[in-house]
Design a protein that fits this description.
The complex is a heterotrimer. Chain A contains seven helices and no strands. Chain A is mainly alpha-helical. Chain A has one domain. Chain A is globular. Chain B has one domain. In chain B, α1 packs parallel to α10 and α7 packs antiparallel against α9. The longest helix of chain B has 36 residues. Chain B starts with a helix and ends with a helix. In chain B, 63% of the residues are buried. In chain C, α12 runs antiparallel to α17. By secondary structure, chain C is mainly alpha-helical. Classes of the chains: A mainly alpha, B mainly alpha, C mainly alpha. Chains B and C meet through β1, α3, α4, α5 and α9 of B and α16, α17, α22, β3 and α23 of C.
């Protein structure tokens, strides 16, 4: 495949896919809460852009609705909610010291290679020119999980969770032009409800353990050493 | 045919001379814009030339136990950087000197210059020199892999490590949205900032002993030796500028060796470097210097960008 | 005289150099005889190797030695010819260097003729390994080499550390030899005979070929000092006399590489790319860990030993790339990797030989190996300082010297990754190249530290301040190798034109256009893809240097004290130390080492009084000891205890054992 031979919009899809991957890495390495939320918002913007571009190329008009929905929910509403939560919980300036950011980034890069490795067999069935972006979507899912594993702060974990959902949505768009509208709407509202519920949980967690640091939850275990 | 060859070599030599001749001008331009931006009275554009001329005329002062290595280092450093400048296409492509060394050898020339400079820092036996050498080698050992990774991304796309061929390839491809180039550009820029000792890694204007890196190594140099080293530093900055400008925005560079194309080439590179100079000044004005132990994170990020460039090149742009 | 006969002369001369000095009564003459014979051996090896390599001939013979049903098979082809040259060059340099260097040992308590005996058989053993063409003679020669080098390591056996190093070395050499032996066993099973010819013809199933490969890689890798089975190397190499260290680091490790290449590329006919990935990864690990450990060492010779691990890693990386390309169906690109590996083998032999001889020269005059006790030697030992600088520039892979050429070739090989079908490999190869870049940059930093602390600055101790230049013989040996560094760096195209015959033999493919554009241009793949002209680089540097030094008007030079911040004169102890130099890297890559650092502050009376003394202790240990060797050691000791329970001491119990064994055997027989 030669990138130079593709149409400009296909090139733009591929370039945005690369940028989405980049935002995932930013989320992995960013120690401050507020830039973390911004990175997530940017990922939403890029995802909406890709959906709109795919809609343009394929002529699937329902994807425009998905794009608008993505933009509204993932680029604005959810980041705004998270930000407001962070302000109300007074953690927006908190810095979470990462033990070894370089190692985390190396693991992330290894995950990208791994997701390329696992997606090669899937990709071969697709005829779309943008099929290679499937590997990126898998990587975004895995990196989101890595964020959840590696971070201690609850808000960071929620961002990781949301970015997993971004990766799944991305995979659906680039491999099969999106899911049926009903399913997409359902998932979108699920995510919204999840965001609200997480907000409630944050206050509960803080009320019970006086911190949003989930590493303290290990006090809950039954057996004392 | 031999006539053509002679002409081509002649042009290559002229291009190299132009390169090293214009390097202080770029430094002067950066200094001037910076002064304007910080509301200071700006020195003249040709002030770096005056400084160099003054240093060349001055008496040679050496520390008591300086060895021959200390005296040879400025010449080796200068020669390595002139050679590096000869291999980077400035205004015209396919110059015969570009075949002497590809981009990996270019990195090798930088390493050679740095090796001797670091040795010279240790030669006098003062703590400052040693400190500068140690820090410089630390920074270099982290920036070199990032630089080569960025370069590999370009080489994988263009299927060559020859700079002239790679630029020709980019020129022929026209405007392509290559995410790998975006990452490589960012990575290479961060490396360039670190390697040229600019803010936030090192402050070229500092003379506070404990924060110096490059300046600490050359603390004992004076007169002609210092002039050669300063000039070499300016050439290095210019090489990075030209690399970034001509690889990522190759438009305007002369593909044929006629007068009109060469004229366009000169104007194009001058415009690109002017723009890059302004960008550098803006960057240096808004950012603060880092402590030494934050530098690994900065360069680690540069490496990550270059690595992402390579990965996107393989995964997204080549694919299955 | 045929090349093979000259090769016999080389072996015999080396063996005689060990035996004859025993018969000479006066020690002084004994040394002369020994080293003259070594020089003969070296020249014979170079001549034999060169004639085999340039003539591209394969000579084979059966000698009436060995077992009745397995005579010794001997063979000299381009691969063994090349390694003959590698051995010959370093041995020649040491034969100039040795006589003066060993004068030191004549008054010592150990008889240097023992050293002659061991080193003679050591060199003869290495040459025989190269000549062997069947598994039996190969293993015999291999063991001669190992045991003789054990004697060299324990030469100064009065120190406990040397005895420990020797024991560790012998133990690991034997474990490695078992791996090699089993590898040969697998091949011989399928080939039907122990000759290499039969093994080449044997139709080995892929799974068994992988088993044989794994065994051989383990065995040869252990001898070559790859991570994590390298532990003997930094212990054994520093404790031998320096000219022997040069041979062990420069040559013996290469014999292990020879064995690995012979086994993998020649005897195992069908190469699989997965092997290449394993070799590449272990090579990258060895290169990176080797150089990081080298960086923090204080002991000059120990540092060089760790740097050998790094260089073996680089060679393995090139071999791994070659295997990946050959296994992936790109023999042309595999040939480039192979040439890069061979070039680095030669380069490392030359510059590591040079650096060990240089460290020996420093040791000879200052009796110091600790970098913190040296300094300022460039003023006292100008020739040694100049050649050591050449070695440092070469090993740091800087143009225009030889180390750069081989690393450049490896980079070029790695950048041919888009030719591969497998996408994951396409990402892996550039990352490996980036690891190589990191290694190269750290090596440069390491050797800036070595040279800057040991040779530049001011003398840190009285010994260093009173050093003198070494005798002429030692200088000749070092200058010879330094000149080779320059030659190999400036004329790579010519050299590659010669070693091109080796990929032809092993892969059946030459480099397509490496030498097509004359001696001036090196173009491994094609001139559009990459080119490098080392002669022009040297010319340009020399020219600029000349313009700068000669054509600019001369100025008078004034000498002043260096800048001291106005606090009064600087002393030797205010210089940057080796520990301080290494500190930033030590902090950045902290998890790599097991570091114990202690700072003790002594104060006079109360707690907040100004400190009167500071004591800084730093102990850096190899992590593999804690993670690998100590657990294995505990396990072995535990197992030995468990088995030791059957030793009751009672005669009747022992009789019972015999009785039970007899019953068991009778049962088996029926």
């Amino acid at each position: 495949m030669d990138l130079a031979k593709l149409s400009l919009s296909d090139q733009a899809v591929i370039a945005s896919a690369a940028l989405i991957l980049f935002t995932s890495f930013i989320m992995l390495a960013q120690a401050r809460i507020r830039p973390l939320i911004y990175a997530f918002a940017w990922q939403g913007v890029l995802l909406a852009l890709i959906t709109a571009l795919v809609a343009l190329v394929s002529g699937q008009s329902h994807l425009y609705i998905s794009a608008a929905l993505t933009l509204g929910l993932k680029a604005f509403l959810i980041p705004w909610m998270l930000h407001r939560l962070a302000v109300r919980l007074n953690v927006q300036h908190e810095v979470e010291p990462l033990a070894n950011p370089s190692i985390l980034l190396l693991i992330g890069s290894a995950l990208v290679i791994f997701s390329y490795y696992v997606s090669v067999p899937i990709v071969q069935f697709s005829t779309l020119v943008i099929r290679n972006t499937v590997a990126v979507s898998v990587a975004v899912v895995l990196l989101g999980m890595l964020v959840m594993v590696a971070r201690d702060k609850a808000i960071a974990q929620v961002v990781g969770f949301m970015s997993i959902e971004n990766g799944l949505f991305f995979a659906a768009v680039v491999s099969t032009y999106g899911m049926p509208m009903v399913v997409e709407l359902g998932i979108a509202f699920d995510v919204l409800v999840a965001a609200v519920l997480f907000g409630v949980f944050f206050f509960q967690i803080r009320a019970s353990i006086d911190s949003l640091d989930v590493s303290r939850l290990n006090r809950l275990r039954e057996i004392d050493e | 045919m031999p006539n053509d060859t002679v002409l081509a070599w002649l042009l290559a030599v002229v291009q190299t001379l132009l390169f090293i001749g214009a390097a202080p001008l770029l430094a002067g331009w950066i200094k001037r814009v910076k002064c304007h931006m910080q509301n200071r009275a700006a020195p003249s554009l040709i002030q770096p030339y005056r400084d160099l001329a003054k240093l060349f005329r001055k008496e040679l002062v050496l520390a008591e136990n300086a060895s021959w290595l200390f005296r040879a280092t400025p010449y080796i450093v200068f020669a390595a950087l002139v050679l590096a400048a000869a291999t980077v296409p400035l205004i015209a492509l396919s110059s015969p000197t570009a075949a002497i060394a590809d981009v990996i050898v270019l990195v090798g020339f930088f390493a050679l210059a740095r090796f001797f400079l670091a040795l010279a820092g240790l030669d006098i036996g003062t703590a400052f020199g040693g400190m500068g050498s140690s820090r410089e080698m630390t920074i270099a050992s982290l920036s070199e892999p990032a630089m080569l990774m960025a370069v590999f991304t370009l080489a994988l796309t263009a299927h060559t490590t020859n700079l002239s061929e790679a630029i020709e390839h980019n020129l022929a491809a026209g405007l392509v949205l290559r995410p790998s180039f975006l990452f490589a550009l960012l990575g290479l820029t961060m490396v360039a900032i670190a390697e040229c000792g600019r803010i936030p890694i090192d402050n070229p204007a500092t003379h506070l002993e404990l924060t110096m890196v490059h300046e600490a190594m050359v603390l004992e140099y004076a007169g002609r030796n210092l002039a050669l080293l300063e000039w070499a530093g300016q050439i290095k900055l210019m090489i990075y500028g030209v690399l970034i400008a001509n690889i990522f925005w190759p438009w305007g560079i002369a593909e044929t060796l006629d007068a009109a194309a060469l004229g366009v080439g000169v104007v194009a590179i001058a415009a690109k470097l002017t723009g890059l100079g302004i960008l550098l000044v803006v960057w240096e004005t808004v950012i603060a210097k880092m402590r030494l132990f934050r530098v690994p994170q900065f360069l680690g990020f540069a490496f990550l960008l270059a690595l992402l460039g390579m990965l996107t090149q393989v995964i997204l742009e080549t694919g299955t | 005289m045929a090349a093979l006969d000259i090769a016999y002369v080389a072996v015999l001369a080396a063996a005689l150099s060990g035996v004859l000095p025993l018969l000479v009564a006066r020690r002084r003459y004994a040394q002369r005889v020994a080293f003259a014979l070594l020089a003969v051996s070296a020249i014979a090896a170079i001549v034999a190797g060169a004639s085999a390599l340039t003539g591209e001939t394969t000579l084979a013979e059966r000698l009436p030695l060995g077992l009745p049903w397995l005579k010794w098979h001997v063979r000299l082809d381009v691969l063994s010819g090349f390694f003959h040259i590698v051995i010959g060059v370093v041995v020649l340099a040491t034969s100039f260097y040795g006589p003066s260097y060993l004068r030191e040992y004549e008054s010592g308590q150990n008889d240097p003729t023992v050293l002659n005996l061991a080193s003679g058989f050591f060199i003869a053993g290495m040459l025989l390994v190269l000549l062997a063409d069947d598994a039996f003679s190969f293993m015999v020669a291999w063991e001669v080499m190992s045991v003789a080098s054990y004697l060299l390591v324990t030469f100064q056996h009065e120190h406990a550390a040397n005895r420990r190093a020797g024991f560790l070395y012998l133990l690991m050499a034997q474990i490695g030899a078992v791996g090699i032996l089993l590898g040969f066993g697998v091949l011989a099973t399928f080939g039907g005979h122990f000759t290499f010819d039969a093994m080449r013809g044997g139709n080995v199933p892929a799974a068994w070929a992988s088993v044989a490969f794994a065994l051989a890689f383990f065995g040869f890798g252990m001898k070559a000092g790859m991570i994590p089975v390298h532990a003997w190397l930094p212990e054994a190499h520093p404790v031998t006399p320096s000219h022997i260290s040069a041979l062990m680091s420069g040559v013996m490790l290469k014999v292990a590489i020879y064995g690995f290449m012979r086994f993998t590329f020649d005897l195992l006919v069908d190469v699989q790319w997965q092997w290449g990935v394993a070799v590449l990864l272990i090579g990258a690990g060895s290169a990176l860990f080797g150089v990081l450990y080298a960086y923090v060492q204080q002991d000059l010779k120990r540092l060089l030993a760790y740097s050998s691990i790094e260089n073996i890693g680089i060679i393995l990386m090139a071999l791994g790339l070659s295997l990946i390309f050959v296994g992936g169906g790109h023999p042309v690109l595999g040939a480039i990797g192979l040439v890069a590996a061979l070039y680095h083998v030669l380069n490392h032999a030359v510059f590591k030989g040079l650096l060990f001889l240089g460290s020996g020269a420093v040791l000879y005059r200052t009796h110091e190996r600790d970098l913190e006790h040296l300094g300022g030697l460039i003023h006292r030992m100008p020739v040694t300082a100049a050649v050591f600088l050449v070695g440092c520039v070469a090993i740091s892979a800087l143009p225009p010297l030889n180390g750069f050429v081989s690393e450049w070739l490896i980079f070029q090989t790695a950048l041919q990754a888009p030719a591969l079908e497998n996408g994951v490999l396409r990402t892996l190869l550039p990352i490996a190249a980036a690891v190589l870049a990191l290694t190269g940059a750290l090596a440069a930093a390491t050797f800036v530290k070595v040279y800057g602390i040991a040779f530049l600055g001011k003398a840190r101790t009285r010994h260093a301040a009173h050093a003198r230049e070494v005798p002429r013989g030692m200088r000749v040996g070092m200058v010879l190798l330094a000149a080779l560094c320059l030659l190999l760096g400036v004329l790579p195209t010519t050299v590659i034109g010669v070693i091109d015959a080796i990929p032809q033999l092993l892969i059946g493919q030459r480099l397509p256009s490496a030498t097509a554009h004359g001696w001036l241009w090196l173009t491994p793949v094609s001139p559009d893809i990459a080119s490098y002209s080392a002669p022009l680089v040297l010319l340009a540097i020399a020219l600029s240097f000349f313009i700068g030094r000669r054509l600019l008007p001369a100025r008078q030079v004034r000498r002043t004290p260096p800048w001291d911040c106005g606090f009064g004169p600087l002393t030797n102890r205010m210089q940057y130390t080796s520990t301080a130099f290494a500190m930033p890297i030590r902090r950045i890559f902290a998890p790599v080492w097991h570091v114990q650092e202690q700072v003790e502050v002594t104060r006079r009376h109360e707690a907040d009084a100004p400190p009167t003394g500071l004591r800084h202790q730093l102990h850096i240990e190899d992590r593999t000891w804690l993670a690998l060797y100590e657990p294995i050691g505990h396990y072995v000791i535990g197992a030995a205890r468990a088995i030791g329970l059957i030793q009751t001491g009672s005669v009747r119990t022992y009789l019972l054992y015999s009785f039970l064994t007899l019953l068991f055997l009778l049962w088996i027989v029926t």
